[in-house]
Description:
The protein is of the alpha+beta class. It is built from ten helices and ten strands.
Amino acid sequence: MNYFLSEDQQALQQLAREFAQGSIAPAAAEYDQKAEFPWLIVKEMARMDFFRLWIPEEYDGMDAGIMGLVLVTEEFSKACGGTALALAGSALGTFPLLMAGTDEQKKKYLPVLAGGEALAAFCLTEPEAGSDAAAIQTTAKLVGDHYILNGTKHFITNGGVAKYYTVIAKTDPTRGSRGASAFIVEDGTEGLVYGKKEDKMGIRASATCEVVFQDCKIPRENLLGREGHGFIVAMKTLDKSRPGVAAQALGIAQGAFDHAIKYARTRHQFGQSIASFQAIQFMLADMATEIEAVRALIYATSRMIDAGEKDYGRESAMCKVMAADTAMRVSTDCVQIFGGYGYMKDYPAEKYMRDAKITQIYEGTNQIQRSVIAHHLIKEYAGGH
Ligand code: COS
């Protein structure tokens, strides 16, 4: 489908596609098998300026917006959903700073992040606070000119490899979601400790670990925005990042589909290519139709965000839910089309299926997304729609 991308967007998409197919795809199976963070590829991404995409020009960024991030994440994820996450996870970690940081904070951190010399990570989730994000127990206590952080964040994407951590912690544990605040914490700060590295089903090239704060003392000026506004910063961050997760799911679905159709054309049974059987054709038709519908929704939402729309929580959640469910269905059907070979690690099909699953879970489960969408709808209709 022609989305009438601008010339710059087409060039960016092409560059990302060539890089993904030339550098990410050939190494995907090995990083997956070793569960190793792809530093060499990430350094190359930085050299090619991909980390500048979502950062404004005044801070050495490219200002390519959510659409730029989405186009690149889609291409990278076609090749490897885990490797793509080094980029998308850094964008997620940067959003609180972009939305709540002062000019001084932005000048200090954004150019370094734009150059890819440092990665960012977002620390919200805790062992006892997943879907119920307001239940976080990590505290930040103001003592003189410093905050002292204590608590455990887990399942942190880019944990242990990032230099900057945007952290949501309670400055007033008695006030529920209104008692949370956002901070930036630098790798190397005393009391910032990396815990258990997770051994995951999929996206194994992505670094995921616990980030623990043990009397971690940070300067007062590392507060992002105002005290008590941390939960809102977290929610707005997720609203902004969900089209990116959706693009990851879209890329995984498209990558799985590309393999499935190639295989269906070359695999012969009963004396003919299996692509000539209607049973396979209908699967391919459904896969392609769902993928295109997802792409249309993600691109439209990204354009809406980049155009300055203020309230896009509903559409972001719709992108994430539809893309993740599609990635799961399409990658499962891809394995089905490959048959027994699809179940074996010698072929790329099973990796797409493993990588797809997380997109229904992280950055808010698909059940939470449906709840967010319903909440928006009910509020809207209560206003006399
Ligand atoms: N933008 C701005 N403000 C928002 C908001 C948004 N998207 N969502 C909620 N808020 C505000 C509300 O308006 C409310 O403000 P007031 O206190 O002034 O009334 C406040 O935040 C609390 O909102 P709410 O009562 O809806 O919060 P809940 O505790 O019920 O939680 C959900 C709501 C479930 C949506 C939230 O906990 C959530 O998103 N959970 C999933 C977390 C997640 O995605 N985790 C994965 C992280 S991986 S990086």
